[in-house]
Structure formats: structure tokens, C-alpha cells
Write a structure and sequence with these properties.
This protein is about 40% helix and about 25% strand. The protein has about 130 residues and is of the alpha+beta class. The chain has a single domain, classed as Aspartate Aminotransferase, domain 1 (Alpha-Beta Complex). Helix 2 packs across helix 4.
Length: about 130
């Protein structure tokens, strides 16, 4: 069994398995998420690092070429589509070249919008 095919138990373990510059970019994404959502919990969901606040907020990950930022919200992806101009992406996933500058303000905005979506979902569920 290849080392990367063994399931990880934590975000630290996931990031530690990556090579540079993927590792640094993932750490930066992680810091951005925590800056926007300091109470978010870290978990592994569907084998990707996921940040939760009531429900899943966003996720991060890698593929052969890119570091990915998972919005986990089709509605938000559609709503913010114009803001993603110039960013490679598919569906609810944004792709970034490892080691290149990340759009920090945009990523924080996404996280904060996801927090609001999750809070609305939680309030709706309580009724």
C-alpha cells in the first residue's frame, strides 16, 4: 500500500504527507480559515481536511498540480462566481498553483459566508 493511500487521522497528518510547496500552501489556507473562523474545528471528512462550525464549512486538499479550496456550497459558488474570475476552478472547488500568492481576502469572505449559511441552517433546523 502506498503511503498516501493510507487514510489520515488529522489535518496535521494530511499536510505532513505533502511535499513543498504544497505543504506551505495548505498551511497558509489553514491559517486563513482559522483567521476567518477561529472557532472552527478541524476534521477529516471524505479523506480531505475539513473545517466545521455546526456543519462543514470548507475543505482544503491537493491533487497532482494544485492545492484546492472546497466551498462545499453550490449556492455560494453560484453567488460568488463573478469574484472567481481569473481563478481556476470546477463546481464548488477553487484550484491554486502551490507556492503562488493566495487571494486571502476572497478566501476569508468565502469562509465568513459559509459561517452565515451554516448559522441559518442551524436556526432553521431548531424550529
Amino acid at each position: 500500500m502506498r503511503p498516501n493511500s493510507i487514510p489520515v487521522q488529522s489535518i496535521d497528518e494530511y499536510i505532513d504527507r505533502q511535499s513543498e510547496p504544497f505543504k506551505s500552501t495548505l498551511e497558509e489556507m489553514r491559517a486563513i480559515v482559522h483567521a476567518a473562523a477561529p472557532k472552527a474545528e478541524e476534521t477529516i471528512s471524505y479523506m480531505i481536511p475539513t473545517f466545521r462550525l455546526h456543519y462543514a464549512l470548507v475543505g482544503i486538499g491537493v491533487n497532482k498540480k494544485y492545492c484546492s479550496f472546497y466551498l462545499m456550497s453550490t449556492a455560494l459558488a453560484k453567488e460568488m462566481k463573478a469574484e472567481f474570475k481569473g481563478i481556476k476552478g470546477t463546481g464548488t472547488t477553487l484550484h491554486f498553483v502551490p507556492g503562488e500568492k493566495l487571494p486571502v481576502t476572497l478566501l476569508k469572505k468565502i469562509v465568513k459566508a459559509r459561517i452565515k449559511e451554516n448559522e441559518v441552517r442551524l436556526l432553521t433546523k431548531k424550529k
